[in-house]
Design goal:
The complex is a heterodimer of chains A (114) and B (117).
Chain A lengths: L2 E3 L4 E5 L4 E3 L2 E3 L5 E7 L5 E7 L5 E3 L5 E5 L4 E6 L8 E8 L8 E2 L3 E6 L1
Parallel strand pairs in A: 2-12
Antiparallel strand pairs in A: 1-4, 3-9, 5-6, 5-10, 7-8, 8-9, 10-11, 10-12
Chain B lengths: L3 E4 L2 E4 L5 E7 L6 E7 L5 E8 L5 E2 L8 E7 L2 E6 L8 E8 L8 E3 L3 E5 L1
Parallel strand pairs in B: 2-11
Antiparallel strand pairs in B: 1-3, 3-8, 4-5, 4-9, 5-6, 7-8, 9-10, 9-11
Classes of the chains: A mainly beta (114), B mainly beta (117).
Chain lengths: 114, 117
């Protein structure tokens, strides 16, 4: 069965600092990989996804993630944090087949201080 | 992209009553929809897969008699929490897989905050 591990339930950075949120997956076959952001009492917004092709994926709001098969990782980064980035971030995986459910990591709360 | 609309966004009900949550795909057809549950400060846990025209598939540990799922059309799935109790208070989110160019994505509803008092 697939699983997702997000290291660090809470990450705090200063405004303008680098954001790094870690995600590792456990699957014999590399799955589809996703990062979502959730603001309080709201649904999920897709930041970016990796399915195939270039391993460095650029998403919305300046975020990007790199798929590293050798490390079974899909870490999310942003060069310069903004106050509005404070939210809950979820890494998720799905089987390499359209229409399958997502399996989510436990989430990482990102706090940004001025 | 595609839009999934979920209603209501918030509901407060008395213990012992039932609550129905609707999930609609607005501009595409969804033969499958997924229902997730999220406790405060926790991740989303898949509860069940809703299949149009057939029975839902429930994840291990989810009571199918308590969480009734009906997928009566290609654009509507409903989750009914029957005889709700305070421990059922949670955030419920539905999603539908995309079609065509968006086939690798999942589109999420806005979520429903259920509070049972």
């Amino acid at each position: 069965a697939q699983s997702v591990t997000q290291l660090g339930s809470h990450v705090s950075v200063s405004e303008g600092a680098l954001v790094l949120l870690r995600c590792n997956y456990s699957s014999s076959v590399p799955p589809y990989l996703f990062w979502y952001v959730q603001y309080p009492n709201q649904g999920l917004q897709l930041l970016l996804k990796y399915t195939t092709g270039a391993t460095l994926v650029k998403g919305i709001n300046g975020f990007e993630a790199e798929f590293k098969k050798s490390e079974t990782s899909f870490h999310l980064t942003k060069p310069s944090a903004h106050m509005s980035d404070a939210a809950e971030y979820f890494c998720a995986v799905s089987e390499r087949q359209a229409g399958t459910a997502l399996i989510f990591g436990k989430g990482t709360t990102l706090s940004v201080s001025s | 992209g595609a839009v999934v609309s979920q209603h209501p966004s918030r509901v407060i009900c008395k213990s012992g009553t039932s609550v129905k949550i609707e999930c609609r795909s607005l501009d595409f057809q969804a033969t499958t929809m997924f229902w997730y549950r999220q406790f405060p400060k926790q991740s989303l846990m898949l509860m069940a897969t809703s299949n149009e025209g057939s029975k839902a598939t429930y994840e291990q540990g989810v009571e199918k008699d308590k969480f009734l799922i009906n997928h009566a059309s290609l654009t509507l799935s409903t989750l009914t929490v029957t005889s709700a109790h305070p421990e059922d208070s949670s955030f419920y989110i539905c999603s539908a897989p995309g079609q065509g160019p968006w086939g690798t994505e999942a589109f999420f509803g806005q979520g429903t905050r259920l509070t049972v008092v």
